[in-house]
Design brief:
Distance between the termini: 25 Å
Bound molecules: iron/sulfur cluster
Family: Belongs to the radical SAM superfamily. 7-carboxy-7-deazaguanine synthase family.
Helix content: 25-40%
Number of helices: 7
CATH superfamily: Aldolase class I
CATH class: Alpha Beta
Radius of gyration: 17 Å
Keywords: 4Fe-4S, Iron, Iron-sulfur, Lyase, Magnesium, Metal-binding, Queuosine biosynthesis, S-adenosyl-L-methionine
Binding site for S-adenosyl-L-methionine: 36-38, 92
EC number: 4.3.99.3
Number of strands: 11
Binding site for substrate: 11-13, 26, 90
Strand content: 15-25%
Length: 241
């Protein structure tokens, strides 16, 4: 069985593929506790999962959160009646259920897009053959309880075998030294990997980053990397799921 929070069709609001139509499969569970987390439901065992019946209509059915692989694949594929760019596996941290995902993915009928916090590299190896695009976060130590530099490096080395981009959420508390370390980490794997600097959407009392500071960070990144873009969470100001 696989634990699911919600399944629905919407617009990708973040990163390199912003604006594309995706089926979102939000999996339960996460191995981190970021200060700005906007999906706290993903951390707890929810009683019921919300599963959209018609793509984009928000006609959710409440179903028990534990799905068999075959049943979940059927729900996801039914939303592909409308053309979609890809299926986004998101969370929480999808790789917390990597073994189950590896069984699910061969049954899905659209390209597969993994949104991940970029720390569970051994679990990534289990699903990598099935994944088309990876949106990998680098988590700065100021938003997690400890640094994950080594895990991120191992993860990116594997992810670079696929179409990968890196996303770094920047807050008012981010430090230049940790951002510099993140840029150097990406450059050490491949300086062509696109990097998205995402100004934090202030939640949980999280402090926003000032525009001139963000521009300064982008300038620093561009001395090491070819493609560095600043993109906020667009679905938040559009009011989309
Ligand atoms: S990795 Fe994602 S889901 Fe997990 S705590 Fe951080 S922001 Fe929340």
């Amino acid at each position: 069985m696989i634990n699911i929070v919600e399944v629905f069709s919407s617009i990708q609001g973040e990163g390199l593929y912003v604006g594309t139509r995706q089926v979102f499969v939000r999996l339960a569970g996460c191995n981190l506790a970021c200060t700005y987390c906007d999906t706290p439901n993903s951390h707890h065992t929810v009683k019921n999962a919300l599963v959209e019946r018609t793509p984009g209509k928000r006609d959710f059915a409440q179903l028990p959160m534990q799905f068999s692989i075959d049943n979940l694949a059927r729900h996801i594929n039914s939303l592909l009646a409308v053309p979609h760019h890809s299926i986004s596996l998101t969370g929480g941290e999808p790789l917390c259920q990597a073994k189950m995902i590896a069984e699910l993915l061969p049954q899905l009928k659209a390209p597969l897009y993994l949104e991940t916090n970029g720390t569970l590299f051994q679990q990534l190896a289990l699903v990598l053959p099935y994944i088309d695009i990876i949106s990998m976060d680098i988590k700065l130590p100021t938003v997690t309880d400890k640094p994950y530099w080594q895990e991120h490096k191992e993860f990116l080395l594997l992810a670079a075998r696929k179409n990968v981009f890196v996303k770094i959420v920047v807050t008012g508390k981010s430090q230049q030294t940790e951002l510099q370390q993140a840029f150097e980490l990406v450059a050490s794997v491949d300086h062509h990997i696109p990097v998205i600097l995402q100004p934090v959407t202030p939640v949980n009392g999280c402090e926003a980053v000032l525009p001139d500071v963000l521009l300064f960070y982008q300038e620093k990144a561009l001395t090491l990397l070819n493609d560095v873009r600043v993109i906020p969470q667009t679905h938040k100001f559009m009011g989309y799921l």
